[in-house]
């Protein structure tokens, strides 16, 4: 209770409490997420680097034995085959075989090869170390040679634990070295029958030096196991107290798809991973304490914790520094003023109390109210000004057209074309009756179509050789209201700037339809001369500009009429609606008028 009372005692205490809560949660969350991400990344990178080293060791081991296996080519030598196949030999044959062995040694520089031995099925053999010899026992009693007899195409690599003195073919004993034996069958070239065997003894230092010289972290190491998981080679400096993973634990990664696992069976967790040697059938096993793998990740964790704590301390200190100098109501008033400055005039302050800040808030609200009224009054005045300007622009169209039509009536009357004079006067009468419309700005679409039809009748009589027209209006549109004099300026542009310059007969098509049951779309199409891409871009700029284009001749007058229609539509319907234009040079122009369906029957 006392804690709650203390928190509620002052505004500063409340802010401090909220600030601590709102600061701690994000900082702790960011810290945890950062640690998890960094731990996972660093652990994966460290694991990948360690496994890459093991793969490199396995490849180096394979390369060593691939080079050594080149000595097996000796078994294809003609004198060697004759020696193994026959039971008789001469001193010269023996010397020649030994010279061949020495030639291979000098060619490939095999420092790790201790001895090369060849023996036939009857125990008669020759080796570098012992020369000619005859075994006292059947060589096929050796399990490895028996296996090669049944599988003559395979090459065996026998580790020291299996290549013991008892199984040594020539009986030679190495006093200072452990031996890895490479065994292969020798086949007769024609019948491919096994006639003997070749054995290459390699110093096991080619493997043990990998285990002794390469380490992982501070205390990790590599060792080599056979296909069953039994250790073959271990570091010579490995303490006897260090227990290696049992073969049963290694078998699931030697025979499965996984290449690593974490051993938690004894003491601290160990990271164990395997890289197979394809040439030998053995595997390189890395064994390192997990703590050494994630050591860098732990350093990052400590850095993150320190960063989070320092950020929290800095944030709290900053809060005290600011809160001691600022008052919350002033901050609130400032934010409201910023909203008002950005154009949001509904940003009212709710003053509390009767102090200077509360009075300042009330004055601010009164000021916004007066600004809104002034803006509304200014907007209304500007709209009226625009309406007056647009009406004046609309009135400028009529005299020019009237003069041309009256001239046509005069010359038709002089030519005695009475019926055409009557038709022309009737169309002109309808045209101006609809244009006036008792001073109203709105008429129904049916009347707007009748108005433009009267205009086209008059113009067709004047330009009979160049003008045809079609009007296709959805009957559902007839009762809907529309601003008057919307279509006539567009049709006039199509005639004067499209067909008239074509110098042959063209077509003006007026189409009215309903789109998405929401909008009325009126299309005015012509097949006149169209516009170049530059002129089309200029016309589109006129439609988007608030200011009308300057009247500098016929080239711009079309943009002037379109701009007039565009401004009227946007003024009455909003910026969503208006006029758009598309044109292809020498093919024609299409003007699209889009207005909303605001209801039928005025």
TrEMBL record:
CDD domains: HAMP. InterPro entries: dCache_1, HAMP_dom, HATPase_C_sf, HATPase_dom, His_kinase_dom, HptR, Sig_transdc_His_kin_internal. It is a multi-pass membrane protein. The keyword Transmembrane helix applies. Keywords: ATP-binding, Cell membrane, Kinase, Membrane, Nucleotide-binding, Phosphoprotein, Transferase, Transmembrane, Transmembrane helix, Two-component regulatory system. It comes from the Bacteria. It catalyses: ATP + protein L-histidine = ADP + protein N-phospho-L-histidine. Its EC number is 2.7.13.3. The chain crosses the membrane at residues 15-35, 302-322. GO terms for cellular component: plasma membrane. Residues 483-599 form the Histidine kinase domain. Gene3D superfamilies: 6.10.340.10, Histidine kinase-like ATPase, C-terminal domain, PAS domain. GO terms for molecular function: ATP binding; phosphorelay sensor kinase activity. It is found in: Cell membrane. SUPFAM superfamilies: ATPase domain of HSP90 chaperone/DNA topoisomerase II/histidine kinase, HAMP domain-like. Its main location: membrane. Residues 324-376 form the HAMP domain. The keyword Membrane applies. This is histidine kinase. The lineage of its organism: Bacteria, Bacillati, Bacillota, Bacilli, Bacillales.
């Amino acid at each position: 209770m006392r804690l709650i009372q203390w928190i509620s005692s002052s505004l500063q205490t409340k802010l401090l409490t909220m600030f601590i809560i709102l600061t701690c949660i994000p900082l702790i969350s960011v810290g945890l997420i950062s640690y998890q991400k960094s731990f996972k990344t660093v652990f994966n990178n460290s694991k990948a680097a360690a496994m890459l080293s093991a793969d490199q060791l396995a490849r180096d081991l394979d390369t060593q034995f691939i080079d050594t296996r080149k000595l097996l080519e000796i078994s294809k030598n003609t004198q060697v085959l004759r020696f193994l196949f026959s039971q008789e030999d001469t001193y010269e044959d023996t010397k020649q075989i030994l010279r061949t062995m020495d030639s291979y040694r000098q060619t490939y520089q095999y420092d790790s090869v201790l001895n090369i031995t060849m023996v036939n099925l009857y125990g008669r053999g020759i080796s570098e170390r012992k020369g000619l010899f005859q075994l006292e026992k059947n060589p096929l009693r050796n399990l490895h040679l028996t296996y090669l007899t049944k599988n003559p195409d395979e090459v065996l690599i026998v580790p020291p634990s299996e290549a013991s003195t008892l199984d040594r073919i020539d009986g030679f004993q190495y006093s200072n070295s452990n031996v890895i034996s490479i065994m292969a069958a020798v086949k007769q070239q024609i019948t491919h029958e096994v006639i003997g065997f070749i054995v290459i003894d390699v110093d096991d230092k080619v493997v043990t030096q990998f285990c002794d010289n390469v380490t992982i972290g501070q205390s990790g190491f590599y060792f080599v196991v056979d296909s069953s998981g039994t250790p073959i080679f271990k570091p010579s400096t490995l303490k006897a107290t260090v227990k290696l993973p049992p073969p049963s634990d290694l078998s699931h990664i030697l025979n499965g798809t996984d290449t690593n696992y974490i051993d938690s069976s004894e003491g601290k967790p160990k990271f164990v991973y395997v890289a197979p040697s394809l040439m030998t059938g053995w595997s390189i096993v890395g064994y390192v304490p997990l703590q050494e793998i994630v050591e860098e990740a732990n350093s990052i964790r400590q850095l993150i914790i320190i960063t989070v704590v320092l950020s929290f301390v800095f944030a709290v200190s900053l809060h005290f520094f600011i809160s001691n100098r600022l008052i919350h109501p002033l901050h609130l008033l400032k934010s409201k003023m910023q909203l008002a400055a950005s154009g949001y005039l509904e940003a009212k302050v709710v003053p509390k109390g009767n102090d200077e800040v509360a009075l300042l808030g009330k004055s601010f609200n009164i000021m916004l109210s007066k600004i809104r009224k002034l803006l509304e009054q200014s907007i209304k005045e500007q709209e009226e000004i625009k309406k007056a300007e647009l009406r004046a622009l609309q009135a400028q169209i009529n005299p020019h057209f009237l003069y041309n039509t009256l001239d046509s009536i005069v010359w038709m009357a002089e030519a005695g074309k009475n019926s055409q004079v009557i038709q022309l006067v009737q169309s002109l009468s309808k045209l101006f009756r609809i244009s006036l419309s008792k001073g109203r700005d709105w008429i129904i679409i049916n009347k707007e179509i009748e108005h433009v039809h009267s205009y086209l009748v008059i113009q067709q009589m004047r330009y009979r050789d160049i003008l045809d027209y079609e009007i296709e209006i959805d009957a559902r549109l007839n009762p809907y209201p529309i601003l008057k004099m919307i279509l006539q300026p567009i049709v006039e542009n199509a005639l004067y700037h499209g067909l008239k310059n074509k110098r042959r007969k063209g077509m003006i098509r007026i189409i009215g339809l309903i789109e998405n049951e929401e909008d009325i779309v009126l299309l005015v199409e012509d097949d006149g001369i169209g516009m170049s891409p530059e002129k089309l871009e200029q016309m589109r700029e006129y439609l988007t500009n608030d200011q009308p284009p300057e009247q500098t001749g016929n080239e711009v007058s079309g943009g002037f009429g379109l701009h007039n229609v565009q401004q009227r539509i946007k003024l009455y319907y909003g910026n969503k609606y208006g006029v758009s234009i598309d044109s292809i040079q020498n093919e024609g122009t299409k003007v699209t008028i889009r207005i909303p369906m605001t209801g039928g029957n005025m």
